[in-house]
Amino acid sequence: MRPWSHVLAFATEQSWGHRMPERAEPRTSRPEPVSTGFERTHFAFSARLCAVALPLLLPPLVACAPDPGRFHLTFVWEGGPPEQSYQICSRLEPSQGGSAIGLAPVSYEPGVGNVTLDVPAVPHGQAYSVIVDVAADCSGSRIEYHGAAPILLEPGASFQYAAAISLERTPYGAGAGLEIPAAVAVGDDRLALVADAVVDLRVWPEKATRVAVALDQNFTVGLEERPLTSLLGEENPRVWPAWNLCGQASLGSDLGCEDGLKQVFVKFLNAAGLPSERFERVVSLDTRAPSLEQLSVEPSVARGGAALVVRLTASEPLAACPELEVAAGLTLGGCGAGGEAMVEPQRCEYCTTLGTELPEGSYAFSGRLVDRVGHESEGFAGLVQVDQTEPALMEPASLSAATAEVSLGQPLIRAGEKLHISFRVAEELAIPARVDVGGQLAECD
Predict the structure, then answer these.
(1) CA–CA separation, 96 vs 91, rounded Å?
(2) pLDDT at 29
(3) Interatomic CA distance for residues 271 and 232, integer angstroms
(4) Exposed end of the chain (fewer CB within 10 Å): N or C?
(5) Is the peptide bond before 299 cis (omega within 30 degrees of 0)?
(6) Which pLDDT score, from 0 to 100, does residue 201 have?
(7) Distance of CA 40 to CAs 12, 127, 252, 265, Å?
C-alpha cells in the first residue's frame, strides 16, 4: 500500500473557536477550505501531498458547553487508493493528561474519498491532539497508517479552520521480510536446515527505526531490540549478525542447543513504537555428521562376469551419494538412470559387472558421507571378493547306509533305504552342491 494523507477541517459559528499554537509558516502550499462566509484561518500541518479541505461545521454552542461536532476527512492518495476496506480509528488526546475522547469507528471502502467522524463533545480550553489510525478493524488489528495533529480550543472569534494531516504508513516488511541466508532448503519441503545455531538474519524493514528479534511469537523470550542504524548495510536487505537460535545466557534465554526445530521471530518498530506484522522462520538445526548404518556387497564373493551390487544406508539424508574410490581393475557406478546412485535420501546403490579376466582377490572401495548442510562423516571402506577358481573336492566322497554291504568291492544298499554321501571341498560354497544318484538329486542336510 502507498502513503496517504487526510485533511481535517473544523469550524464554529459561536464565540468558541479553535486554533493551532503559533508556529512558523510552512513552506508547503496551504489547503483552501470550502467557503462558508466565515472569517478564515488556515494552517497546513506536515502536508506532503496536494490536499483538499472540507469544512467541519459545529452546531451553535449554548452557555459555552461542549457540544457534539464533526470531522470531515478527505483522503488524497499517492498513486491511487487501496483496493481493500479499512476502519478509521480516531480519538482526541489531551496534551496535559486526562482521558482521551474516543470517536466511533467508521469504515473506509474502496472508491470512497470522504468519511465523517462524529465527536461526542467538542472540548475547549486546553490543547489536544487529533489521532487518526487506520487498520483492518478497530478492535485490536495492527495499525497500518497513523497520523496526529495538535489543536487548541479556546474562546475566540468565529472562524473556519482547516488542517492537513499526513498519515504515515506504519512499519512493514518489504521483500521476504526475514531470511536466514545460511539455511539450506530441503527439496520441495518448506523446512530448511542450518549447520550452526549462530546465524545471520537478513531483514527488509520499511518505515522503521528499530528491529526486534525474539525466540517466541509473543516477543518475551530472548527479546532484543536494536536501532536500524546498528544493522549491517545502509539499505535493504540489512543484516542482523550472529543471532543465536538457541538463546543467549546473557539475556536469560539459553534454551539449550539440541539438534531439532528452532524458531526466530522479527518485527519492525517506528519511533512511536508502532509495530509491523510479525515475521517468522522455522529451521532445523543439524550439527552432527552423518554415519554409515549399513554397508553390503552382493554377492559377498563373486566370479568374473557376475553382476555386483553395493548398497549403503546413512543415518540421515545426504546431499548426494558419495563418489567411491575403488581399487585398480574395479569400477562401481550408480545403478539408476544416468549413473544415479541415490535410491532414497538415505540410501545409495552402486552396480558393476566384474570382468571375466579380473584376477581373483580382494578389491577395496571407500568413501565419505556428506549431509545436506555439509557435515562430513569419517571415511568408510568395503571389500569386493573375486574368486575365479572352480571349487574342488579335498578327498573322495564317502557313501554310507545302515545295511550297506560290500560285494565285489562295491557297496550294496537295499531299495528304499537312505544313503548318506559325504565330501569336503576346498572353499565355501555359495549354494549347496548338486549330487545326482542314478538320475535322482540328493537333498543336502
Answers:
(1) 15
(2) 31
(3) 20
(4) C
(5) yes
(6) 97
(7) 11, 20, 60, 51
Q: Evaluate if residue 39 carries a pLDDT over 80.
A: no
Helix (H/G/I), strand (E/B), else coil: 230 = helix
Q: Among residues 120, 128, 132, which one has the least CA distance to residue 152?
A: 128
3-state helix, strand, coil in the chain (%, to 5): 0, 45, 55
Mapping DSSP to helix (H, G, I), strand (E, B) and coil, where does residue 25 land?
coil
DSSP states of 234-279 as a string?
SSSSEEEEEEETT--GGGT------SEEEEEEEEEE-TT--B---E
pLDDT band at 2 (very low <50, low <70, confident <90, very high): very low
Collapsing DSSP to helix, strand or coil, 363 comes out as strand
* Cross-strand bridge partners of residue 76: 5
Grid cell of 315 as nine digits: 543415518
Residues forming a β-bridge with 301: 385
Q: What does DSSP assign to residue 402?
A: T
Between CA 77 and CA 35 the distance in angstroms is 24
Reduced to 3 states (helix: H, G, I; strand: E, B; else coil), residue 125 is coil
Q: How far apart are CA 225 and CA 214, in angstroms?
A: 9
What number of other Cβ atoms are within 10 A of residue 155's Cβ?
11
Distance, in Å, from the CA atom of 196 to the CA atom of 203, rounded to the nearest integer, reads 19
